[in-house]
Amino acid sequence: xxxxxxxxxKPLLAAPDRRRLLATLVPAAWPVISxxxxxxxxxxxxxxxxxVESISVIRSRLELQFAPGFSASLQAAARTWVRTSxxxxxxxxxxxxxxxxxxLLVPEDGSGVRGGVxxxxxxxxxxxxxxxxxxxxxxxxxxxxxxxxVHLVIPQIPRSQNWLHEGVATxxxxxARGRVGLVSPATVWRVWAADMPQGQPKAGDxxxxxxxxxxRTYWGxxxxxxxxxxxxxxxxxQRFGLQHALQGVLAAGGNYGESWSVDRxxxxxxxxxxxxxxxDLYRRMKDSSxxxxxxxxxxxxxxxGGTLNDDAPxxxxxxxxxx
Length: 323
Ligand SMILES: [Zn+2]
Fold this sequence. Notes:
This protein has helices spanning about 15-25, 40-45, 70-95, 135-140, 145-150, 160-180, 185-195, 215-235, 240-250, 260-270, 275-285, 295-300, 315-320; strands at about 30-35, 50-55, 60-65, 100-110, 115-120, 125-130, 305, 305-310.
């Protein structure tokens, strides 16, 4: 189990900027998945009985556990935030990724959503640390919970291939939140254009499967997802994208409660949209240190910093990603 670091006590920036700041200063603050370690921390979280309630999202059940120390008002605000986050995820995938998950919220001093971890053992659990002074605006800006919920879609894979898990969580989090209006399309593209270069190979890189650095894991994986999404949408005249491919994984019984190979995940996703784009892209990138032409990609999508150009050749694809 890896632990998450501390977020700044008083975030002064909107979530995407705060994320960039965190990425620069304390990469360990990023939400993570754990590899089957029993949750020893849970006993320490629960010095006393948690307040437990159940939230339904379509046909799924979220067991929401408030560790001792929540005020009634914080509990109400957190409940709304959980509901909003779960709805954004369910809207993207057409359902919530798993039939049941526990969500343990642990209060601590300060404000803001302070980090999350998703566990698979002994049962599916997302644990999030939450500042007692978190404001409504901070809840709306939060990306951590959606990121953790997206992890539930991808089956467990070998740790060396964690870039796929973190890449999907990083990429889909922005798309899912953008689609329900929690973040604007201009902000999403601006942040991707600024941050995605951190996923490019550096000296000594041996491809996505063999370079477990922070940049390659989170942004290299997100870059893989963006390239796949663009290619899928382009070839289908915007009818099918990564969304539909990942929905195919869920439809085939894949989720974080299962163990699959990366090849199986990608071929299942491809089959759902009648393509081999994800598998082909994986073959190209898994052992290769060749950089992606991001500058050319932004130009063809019509992304120029925070300005979006609708006359660009792939402007329709760009709009389809966030609408
Ligand atoms: Zn993660």
